[in-house]
Design a protein that fits this description.
The structure holds two protein chains of two kinds.
Chain A (H helix, E strand, L loop, with lengths): L1 H13 L1 H9 L1 H13 L7 H18 L4 H26 L16 H7 L1 H12 L9 H11 L3 H9 L1 H14 L5 H17 L5 E5 L23 E6 L13 H14 L6 H15 L9 H13 L10 H21 L9 H20 L2 H19 L14 E3 L1
Antiparallel strand pairs in A: 1-2
Helix pairs in contact in A: 1-4, 2-3, 4-5, 5-8, 6-9, 8-9, 8-11, 10-13, 11-12, 12-15, 13-15, 13-16, 15-16, 15-17, 16-17
Chain B lengths: L1 H18 L7 E4 L2 E4 L1 H8 L3 H12 L3 H14 L3 H9 L3 H13 L8 H31 L3 H18 L11 H21 L2 H13 L6 H17 L22 H17 L7 H13 L3 H10 L7 H14 L3 H11 L9 H11 L6 H14 L8 H17 L4 H21 L4 H13 L3 H14 L5 H13 L3 H13 L7 H13 L3 H20 L17 H14 L3 H14 L4 H13 L3 H14 L4 H12 L6 H14 L4 H13 L3 H16 L11
Antiparallel strand pairs in B: 1-2
Helix pairs in contact in B: 2-3, 3-4, 4-5, 4-7, 5-7, 6-7, 7-8, 7-9, 8-9, 9-10, 10-11, 11-12, 12-13, 13-14, 14-15, 15-16, 16-17, 17-18, 17-19, 18-19, 19-20, 20-21, 21-22, 21-23, 22-23, 23-24, 23-25, 24-25, 25-26, 26-27, 27-28, 27-29, 28-29, 29-30, 30-31, 31-32, 31-33, 32-33, 33-34
The chains are: A mainly alpha, B mainly alpha.
Chain lengths: 406, 708
């Protein structure tokens, strides 16, 4: 493996050429990416392709479950997506100020390794938080854009992982300062377009159940009697129209849809990204997470902290607030369902989420927004219950007996 | 005899069990014989499973499997899960399951030979329980060792076996309670195991299997599983997809996504609580509140809250939650009535949140504004200590309510007092909440309504800046303020800029503004062109307006077709294009047969063609339809003012009445001036003309209040 990684380093010297091309214009680089997807055999790519061919061997052996032909098919698939990931990482090298771990490109699944690599993601986060980031010629934004265009789902996750910090920078800057944020907007638009495609522009709707009708989980005494009563149809996200640019009255919608996409992948997003998201939500709400009235006092401290980056209270229309609440609900009550930690353990994510929800609750009180008061209020109470509840009884444990009867 | 010993043993054992298990006296009992386990345990500790097994077989006259099962259970209870696993590995559980099946197939016709096969039941169920419990303990051991995937596979085999043994589900009351316990525990454990293994789709199938097959679970177990699944669906972020076709019965509701399934399960749970089948669990309701308010279905939520049994929530809490639901659902009156109850002096009259909510509802209705002022003041007085941060909100609502109250004021003096108080409150609020953008817009509108156009302009600009131009209302206000300052071309630039920031579907209100701006600049042909464009948009919207279409940002400000036709009719009649005007008016009338607006336009057309009697008839009809329709009042007053000295008092009272309703109506001031002049009261006439002139200089093309 080490030999292949050293092989990888040599093309790195050659690699910057396409990466710099990326910096000059977006379109050609896009075409390049697709070309890579299709053939994966252009002259510059040969060496990484070899490295990639070496990597999946290890991968398949570790799996060792499927039958022969399926695994082969798997190789051809993963080799191309591994190559794409390696290309992406190579071009990232030229953007980041510090080196990235040399083991990264040679990992069995470079995209997933990048996703969970704290050091590299911290570098990217720092770049995104710079006051000058997000312009049309921002290389990192281009990288995010191009990376999201690849058809490697894990690479898409890498881009989504940075959505909180990108929004943190974008939403607060777009209101106060009239600076070009075309780089951020290009990334957001590509997320929006992806979601539009995925949903075929269709709205997300929910048929609210009515217990007078029987359902798979319950019986009703008056079945089919009043079949005519229409179910309540709730549109939770209206149909998606195509957007080629961010019009300011549509910004909330585009951001909201990007967050909806983030939510659909939330079980695969690393915790650090979610914690960042919670912290931004707290600042967007206008600070103040202390339910016992610290709103004003907190605000001063908050303001200082936020001042550096200019992140503060922003308009939170329902289009944004609704997906935000879904994500926060997951951070508060869902992430411990999917990460094997114990239920009552207070994790950093739980703490960040409850702080964010408390400040959003106060914010909705200030806005006197009844729907938001209901939603955030219920989450606050659920969070408190989760903190207070003593060790739950494990009903799946057999009772202790001193006399065992057969 | 033995039972008393049991009881005595159990109590201390339960307590000391955790601290030092080694000293616990244990017994194993079978076939009427009990033996102490110390000897067996010693053998187990030496790793001699076979000897331990044989001593059990001899001592209790058991067969191999029974002895192993007992040993495994003993090891498990001693906390030696690895040992338990070694013991269980010695039994061929799959073979044991196989052996169980034939004896149970006899059971399939249960009605015929129940009595005959009763004893056989007992035996086979006993054997089944032995095997299944053994596998279950193996599962638990594996789980404790962190081998969750294996555990899940084994657990699945328990459930498979149960399904094979009982083809048609577990019959109620015919199953040994220990067997039932094992089955219930396995059913409940399986989804947890898959979750721990990170296999979420398997977890979802396990949940559904638990809930949709007949396991004869007791209510509490079933409720726990249902709640666990609902929570998983709501918060895990893992998309479950609809359940398989096999479970879908015709005519029954089948959830198609996570939210639907979670809401259904929570509603079922809430219903079970009312029926007394399970204990009330406050978290279930909170989850339901979260889910339904995410879907904006607060009226459904209100129904759920209303169904909660008395005694669960304090009545004031319930009223407050209900008022939030109804307010969010747009049923403001119901919400306000509930709040009035909760704010009654015998309930919780000082609750700041409720006071603010009530004030907010009142601030939207001029007839309730005075009541709202009271709530806002009470809210401010009570915003102390923990709730001090809400003072700014109270002030803001006070300002809004005063502003609304000013519209209903009976005298000029009263009105101007209320107006200045309203502005003072809003300014004070903005001192406390400088970053509240809604407040910024409200101040802008308030200032523009009082014709302080410079201040209004500042706020409108600031609002657009701070929102990044994302709110349509900000653009509209800026354009209106500019139009009131007679800076039409700038207003047009703003309108065009706003159109760049919106999509075609939402340009209706802006196009209407633009058409009116063109009229104001006497660019009639451009105006007609803009109206045409607007008409095309409105008709296209009408065609594609299903229930799922995009909800425009300002929903109530949708431009309707009627308004467009009427506007066009007005425009044509001002150009004396009577035929075109007639056509447009006809179209408008098709959409709305009786409307003061149409009669107003019709009257104008008659007047334009010198048919004074018909015009008067049209205006009077308009007033009959809508007694407070100011434009026609003014026009009748104007016509009477020209009808000779006898009619002047009538005209004057009509115009005064119009000015009471709309003090900024410059035409009313003008005609009132004319009357004063004709009657020889020159000073009054001058005052009126001056007012008219001043108002004309600050007249917007649409009413400012249309924005809020």
């Amino acid at each position: 493996m080490s030999s292949s990684s050293s092989d990888d380093d040599s093309p790195a010297a050659v690699e910057p050429t396409p990466a710099e091309e990326t910096a000059v214009e977006k379109e050609p680089s896009l075409a390049e990416e697709t070309a890579v997807e299709e053939t994966a055999a252009t002259t510059e790519e040969t060496v990484p392709a070899i490295a990639a061919a070496a990597a999946p061997v290890i991968k398949t052996s570790s799996r060792a479950s499927g039958s022969g032909p399926v695994v082969r098919f798997d190789i051809s698939q993963s080799s191309s997506s591994t190559t794409i990931a390696q290309t992406a990482i190579e071009s990232l090298k030229s953007i980041l100020p510090n080196n990235i771990p040399s083991s990264l490109p040679s990992a069995p699944n470079p995209a997933l390794t990048l996703l969970h690599d704290l050091e590299t993601t911290a570098q990217i986060t720092a770049l995104l938080r710079r006051p000058s980031s997000g312009a049309g010629d921002d290389n990192l934004c281009r990288w995010l854009y191009d990376t999201f265009q690849s058809n490697n789902p894990d690479l898409k996750l890498v881009v989504l992982r940075f959505l909180p910090v990108l929004l943190g920078a974008y939403l607060s800057r777009v209101v106060s300062r009239r600076k070009s944020l075309a780089g951020f907007e290009a990334v957001l638009l590509s997320l929006y377009a992806h979601e539009t495609n995925r949903r075929a522009s269709q709205p997300l709707a929910v048929n609210i159940p009515d217990l007078t009708h029987p359902s798979i989980y319950h019986e009703s005494k008056s079945p089919l009697k009043n079949n005519a009563t229409a179910l309540n149809l709730a549109v939770i996200s209206p149909s998606l129209e195509p957007h080629g640019m961010v019009r300011s009255t549509k910004r909330a919608r585009i951001v909201g849809v990007a967050l909806e996409l983030y939510y659909t992948k939330i079980d695969k997003i690393p915790e650090t990204s979610k914690i960042e998201f919670c912290e931004f939500c707290r600042m967007w709400a206008g600070g103040g997470d202390d339910e016992n009235g610290g709103f004003k006092k907190e605000e001063a401290a908050e303001a200082e902290e936020a001042e550096e980056e200019g992140i503060g209270r922003i308009p939170l229309p329902w289009e944004i607030l609704q997906p935000v609440l879904r994500v926060l609900g997951h951070c508060l009550l869902g992430s411990n369902l999917i990460t094997k930690c114990k239920k009552n353990e207070s994790t950093p994510l739980f703490d960040a989420a409850i702080a964010a929800i408390r400040s959003l609750y106060l914010r909705s009180m200030h806005d006197i927004n009844p729907k938001a008061i209901l939603a955030t209020g219920s989450l606050v109470r659920l969070g408190n219950m989760a903190m207070e509840s003593a060790d739950e009884i494990d009903y799946t444990e057999i009772p202790f007996q001193t006399v065992i009867n057969l | 005899m033995t039972s008393t010993v049991d009881e005595d043993d159990r109590e201390p054992a339960m307590e000391s069990g955790e601290s030092d298990e080694g000293k616990v006296v244990r017994e194993v009992c079978a076939n009427g014989v009990c033996i102490k386990t110390t000897e067996v345990e010693a053998k187990l500790d030496e790793g001699n499973i076979q000897e331990a097994e044989s001593s059990l077989r001899e001592g209790l006259s058991l067969n191999f499997e029974e002895a192993r099962a007992l040993l495994g259970k003993l090891e498990y209870q001693r906390g030696n899960v690895e040992g338990a696993l070694r013991v269980f590995d010695g039994i061929d559980l799959q073979a044991a399951i196989q052996r169980l099946q034939p004896c149970v197939t006899e059971k399939t016709p249960p009605k015929k030979g129940r009595a005959r096969s009763e004893s056989q039941h007992a035996v086979s169920q006993h054997a089944a329980n032995l095997v299944l419990e053994a596998i279950y303990l193996k599962v638990k051991s594996l789980q404790k060792l962190g081998r969750v995937t294996e555990a899940a596979d084994e657990c699945t085999s328990v459930l498979d076996a149960v399904e094979k043994i009982f083809h048609q589900g577990i019959p109620d009351g015919q199953v040994d309670s220990r067997l039932q316990d094992t089955v219930s525990q396995a059913v409940e454990l399986l989804p947890e195991l898959w979750k721990q293994a990170g296999c979420f789709q398997e977890a979802i199938s396990a949940y559904r299997r638990a809930l949709l097959s007949q396991w004869n679970l007791n209510n509490e177990t079933c409720a726990r599983i249902q709640k666990g699944f609902a929570v998983f669906l709501l918060y895990s972020g893992v998309e479950a997809g609809p359940p398989s076709l096999a479970v879908q019965l015709e005519g029954s509701y089948v959830p198609k996504n996570n939210l639907e399934e979670a809401i259904l399960l929570l509603m079922v749970l809430v219903k079970k609580c009312y029926l007394g089948k399970i204990k009330w669990d406050p978290s279930v309701m909170e989850h339901l509140i979260f889910a339904l308010s995410l879907c904006s279905q607060t009226s459904v939520l209100a129904k759920q809250l209303e169904e909660v049994m008395p005694g669960v929530y304090h009545r004031v809490d319930r009223w407050k939650s209900l008022s939030l639901c109804y307010f969010a659902a747009g049923q403001n009156k119901v919400a306000l009535n509930l709040l009035r109850k909760s704010l009654h002096k015998h309930e919780q009259p000082d609750d700041v949140a409720a006071l603010l909510l009530a004030a907010k509802i009142c601030s939207e209705d001029p007839y309730l504004a005075a009541e709202g002022v009271g709530y806002a003041q009470r809210a401010m007085n009570n915003s102390i200590e923990n709730e001090e941060h809400l003072r700014g909100v109270g002030l803001r609502l006070l300002g809004l309510c005063l502003g609304k109250q000013a519209k209903m004021a009976s005298s000029d003096f009263e009105r101007s007092r209320l107006q200045s108080e309203a502005l003072k409150s809003l300014e004070a609020a903005s001192g406390l909440e400088s970053n509240n953008l809604d407040l910024m817009l409200e101040l802008g509108v308030q200032y523009s309504e009082y014709r302080n156009l410079n201040a209004a302009l500042q706020y409108a600009k600031k609002f657009i800046d701070e929102t990044g131009g994302s709110v349509l209302k900000g653009w509209q206000l800026l354009a209106l303020v500019l139009s009131a300052q007679k800076r039409f071309s700038e207003a047009e630039v703003v309108t065009d800029a706003a159109m760049d920031e919106t999509t075609k579907w939402e340009q209706g209100p802006l196009l209407r503004l633009k058409a009116k701006l063109k009229v104001s600049q006497s660019l009639h042909m451009d105006a007609i062109e803009t109206y045409r464009y607007l008409l095309a948009l409105v008709q296209a919207q009408k065609k594609s307006f299903g229930p799922l279409r995009i909800v425009p940002q300002v929903e109530d400000d949708k431009v309707n077709e009627f308004e467009v036709w009427n506007g066009l009719a007005n425009l044509y009649s001002s150009l004396s294009h009577w035929k075109d005007a007639e056509i447009c008016l006809g179209k408008a009338r098709e959409l709305k047969e009786f409307s003061p607006e149409v009669l107003h336009t019709e009257g104008l057309m008659c007047e334009g063609r010198e048919k004074i009697q018909e015009a008067l008839a049209a205006y009077i009809n308009a007033l009959l339809l809508e007694p407070s329709y100011v434009p026609c009042k003014v026009l009748i007053g104007a016509l009477w003012s020209k009808a000779g000295p006898d009619a002047l008092p009538i005209a004057r009272s009509l115009l005064s009445d119009a000015l009471r309703l709309d003090p900024t109506n410059r035409k009313a001031w003008f005609y009132l001036g004319v009357i004063h002049r004709d009657e020889g009261r020159m000073a009054d006439a001058i005052d009126c003309f001056q007012a008219a002139a001043m108002l004309e200089e600050s007249d917007p093309i649409e009413s400012f209040s249309s924005i809020l």
